[in-house]
Amino acid sequence: MIPFNKASITDLEVKYVTDALLNSKSSGDGPYTLKVYEEFKKRFGIENMLLTTSGTTALEMAAILADLQPGDEVIVPSFTFSSTANSFMLRGAKPIFCDVRRDTMNMDENLIEGLITPKTKAIFPVDYAGIPCEMDTINEIAKKHGLLVIEDAAQAVGSRYKGRVAGTLAPFGCYSFHETKNYVMGEGGAIVINDASYLDRAEIIREKGTNRRQVLKGMVDKYTWHDIGSSFLPSDILAAIMYAQMQRFDEIMEKRMMVWNTYQTELVELENKEKLIRQFLPDNVEHNAHMYNIILPSDKIRTDLVAKLKEQGVYAYICYVPLHSSPLGKKLGYRPEQCPVTEDYGERVLRLPLYADMTKEDALKVVELVRDILTK
Ligand SMILES: Cc1ncc(COP(=O)(O)O)c(C=O)c1O
């Protein structure tokens, strides 16, 4: 059996969790949370980040910080997870779906300006498959039109765009440390505050609208209600798992990269025979081996491949049902033809199994099965 995904957990995660449970504190902002921040600072130069209970709540915090209101419009790809759109729809803002590029499957930056209206307030690009968007262009457009950019880097921890690390490419970046991501804490995430002028408010929003964090920092001696907010901070027990994962950062990345590279090398023959298209990588990106996608000739071939792989104990999954043509998207009046490339890829993209503890033999077995099924 080759599962689709499996978190890589060792004695180190167990050791730190046990320590947090027995010797530390179980609520948020304890010593392990601070250690995680230090790791991100050391590795990526990130000065201001706040752990959250999920990638979803990191995005929700960003939408509050951006002051998004009912009536505002937000440009977002439809080829993403529901959380990207939910985060600002919870504030009453409306998604304006942008189609994706044929190559990266990321938001097509050339379509953004055509979607801007007087109501547009923000752009939420998504670094799909851990491949950062064309952020220089997106940031230029945002600057020209006075819009805020929130980078959904849920899948892109450790990736780089023109040498700059994903999550730091806009005023806010949002990471996910969900069990299906490269670095996990069960459920968890982080908001990276790249524009430090938002930091004080972010700390308050994350702590139920209070300035409790200033008490922890010794800046004030009692805390009170200052703003709206929620309970966005995770338990230090979960941060202990994340600290171990950060210490194993290179090991996890190298193992995932081995599987990714095996797929990329071994599937070239099938691409030459036009049986599939392999994952595309732009020159200006260093990716994090988060996902391996193949694009199949049709929905029918994809459905058949998924079923036949499953019969052999191999679990591959479709990625997204596009948001604009999902049940809610339809109810809200979006039409499939608004994002034709997304619609097409929604039917043909397939994610192959990929996790750090997968062996080369496992990856070769997947390739062999895909080859057999598609060439029969
Ligand atoms: C692009 C994207 N945004 C947001 C999220 C939400 O992250 P989480 O599952 O940690 O809430 C995910 C996770 O699946 C994602 O892939």
- DSSP helix fraction: 25-40%
How many discrete domains? 2
> Widest sheet: strand order?
1-9-8-5-4-2-3
CATH topology of the largest domain: Aspartate Aminotransferase, domain 2
Can you tell me the CATH architecture of the largest domain? 3-Layer(aba) Sandwich
SS content category: alpha/beta
In CATH, what is the homologous superfamily of the largest domain? Type I PLP-dependent aspartate aminotransferase-like (Major domain)
Net shape: globular
Main sheet overview: 7 strands, mixed
What's the mean pLDDT score? 97
Report Rg. 21 Å
Low-pLDDT runs of 5+ residues are none
What sequence of helices (H) and strands (E) makes up the elements? HHEHEHEEHEEEEEHHHHHEEHEHHEH
Description:
The protein contains 14 helices and 13 strands. It is α/β, with parallel strands linked by helices and about 375 residues long. The protein folds into 2 domains: about 10-245, Aspartate Aminotransferase, domain 2 (3-Layer(aba) Sandwich); about 250-375, Alpha-Beta Complex (Aspartate Aminotransferase, domain 1), CATH 3.90.1150. The structure holds pyridoxal-5'-phosphate. Pyridoxal-5'-phosphate binds near residues 80, 81 and 178. Pyridoxal-5'-phosphate binds next to α3 and α4.
